What does this fold into?
Amino acid sequence: MSDQALLTLDDLRVDFHTPTGIVNAVRGLSFTLGRERLGIVGESGSGKSMTGRAILDLIPHPGVVTAKRMGFRGQNLTTMDKRARRKLRGRHISMVMQDPKFSLNPVQTVGDQIAEAYRVHHRASAREAKERSLSMLEAVQIREPARVYDLYPHEVSGGMGQRVMIAMMLIAEPEILIADEPTSALDVTVQLQVLKILDDLVTSRGMGLIFISHDLHLVKSFCDRVIVMYGGKAMETLPASELDKAQHPYTRGLLGCLPDLDHPREKLATLNRDPAWLA
Amino acid sequence: MTDQTATSATWHAWLTTTSPESRRQAKLGQLYRQWLAFRKNPAAVVGLAIVVSLLLIAAFAPLIAQHDPLAQALDQRLLAPSAKHWFGTDALGRDIFSRVVYGARVTLVIVMLVVITVGPVGLLIGCAAGYFGGWVDTVLMRITDVFLAFPRLVLALAFVAALGPGLENAVIAIAVTAWPPYARVARAETMIIRNADYISAMRLQGASQMRIVLKHVVPMCMPSLIVRTTFDMAGIIITAAGLGFLGLGAQPPIPEWGAMISTGREQIFDQWWVATFPGIAICVVALGFNLLGDGLRDVLDAR
Amino acid sequence: MSTNSAINVDKLNVSFGDSHVVKDLSFAVEPGESYGVVGESGSGKSTVLRVLAGLNRDWSGEVDILGKRQPKIRDKAFYRAVQMVFQDPYGSLHPKKTVDDTLAEPLAIHGIRDAEAKISRAMQDVGLPTSFRFRYPHQLSGGQRQRVAIARALVLEPTILLLDEPTSALDVSIQAEVLNLLQALRHERKLTYILVSHDLAVVGHMCERLLVMQFGRGVEEMTATTLAARAPQTAYAQQLLTASEGFRRAG
It folds into this structure.
């Protein structure tokens, strides 16, 4: 953890105004992000993805984001206009989504997409952008960058597609990267390679990483600090290494549900949700 | 008043419950939820109102029309719209309002006959081609392509020319030319559906091919077919009117809108009302079906 | 391999056009056993299950189920003995059929009488309240849908259940409930399971023996005890096991 906060959220709320009533996706979440790997874990509907999207102002239509304060390096995001927010996106705060298949443009080569991501934020010649893209592809450990540069998204495997996405998101050298289930669509062995690349880049460039995941084991082994979310609220925040010693019944319950090779049981524990957690 | 609100609230609760107690309640509840969604789209409600009005006008034509649509009055030729003749009279002194009203029946008959023949044929051919694939697909789809290759009006013209002009032949001609797009839509849908896990699950239960197609694939194709049909209504009405206009559809003195425009063509500059009112009727009905189709698509295709 | 195996697969090969997805695969599953098949995407694990279920017909080799050599096209009686639960609970239920419709269909196909009682019992067995009987899939959560899918598979009272990643689309807390249900049903009804999964912990929890697959081949067959002892023989199985334990930062 660092002394300097990159991002401060105070009382973040995301509400969806639907015909059947207001759905509170995130209800009063506060945290600060330094130059660290911050994990957000929770089950579906916990509001973890909505938190990531709210930071980037990517909440779809009936959703409304409010916060007492959303500070990014001294700027207050809540009072910023749409255009300024958009400029921030990609340049200073980036996001890697779950499935590269849906995030890449199918009719453009992956290389051109990376180069374009660079040129959107930096004044550079096409040549310079291409050079930077090639070195970025190398940085995400793609063996033949020149060949991969000219491939279309459907010609790359899932793991390679996700590396391309990471290259694209990191080429503008953002200060914060939000990774929303970046490896859930990948096989375990590939997953670890991608995480390793992500880890190296984030550490070497001194970025802040928000790692959103449903996988407790992964977050425990990958992150520095973990926020456990349930029903739009943070149940507890604790150092990742102490996740096994979590106090909150929800976190304990989640851990208890997981089948464990070391502790075989006839019956898995099930989770009893307590309405008091959301009070 | 309070009693009424209480009953309607009970009905609403009964229909929207998440735990229906019978098959019927579940089906009705599903319909009711679709209706609630449909009601939110004002354009679609307007479309529905137009279509319902068409049905009512056709059903109660004798009550609405003040004159006999076929009665000629040569002393009252080409009168401008007035209190007595709301839409004026035509070259034979017939009341245009009454003819437009009775024309709704003709239009409705054409539309109904076409839909009854085209829907099931297109659906079955498309579903069979899509589900079985292989040579079944090749044969059925090449036949479809042959029919698709001809422009609708031209093929209809050829049929009418061969069979002779008349309302029945116009319907046959339109039906023959209208089914291929339905087969295409149904086939495309089926090709997606047949790979779904729920179809595999049916195969795993030992269901016969026939059962799978009829009971599980067809219901999934229905929404897009219904939507497609309502959109197509406008085209069918216009084709029928076109054939009428060319003198190949409904024969005089049947009050068919297209034929009415055709006869009013000679007077279009001096007695504008003769061709205009049937024209407006065609426009409004075509628009009504289109708006309805739009609304239905939003409601039925929401999966 | 013993002759009275519930399932006996010998030299199974499956090809789709040019790609050879399952290569010379052989294994046997004893009656009442729970057998896991583990592998990454492209290992051919799901294809094996589809061959066993009769959903895939482009295969060669020998498949014996309950002592009978299986032809490519299965008869109706086969489906009373072998059923399957699919991975995606959102795709495996017909969107326009209520729970009742879904459960009544297999009974109607096989002309089984007393459907009313059988449906209520099937719902009860998988822990679905009767008030859900006339709900449509969109009115159910993922876990509830998977329970319906399990009920549909069990309503014909099969002896073998093929499970294709039955919990990988579910949250961990729901996964625990579904796995507990599957365990309980297996003990009650003496079912034979084949469980395909990418999750070693799930397979370790559910199965007595497992087969690790890679690129269409069976790499290693081991017992759950070997797995728990982290003692696989082959490098690939070892690698898979290490990878599933989470991220390790070098240094």
The CA atoms of residues 77 and 110 of chain C lie 9 Å apart.
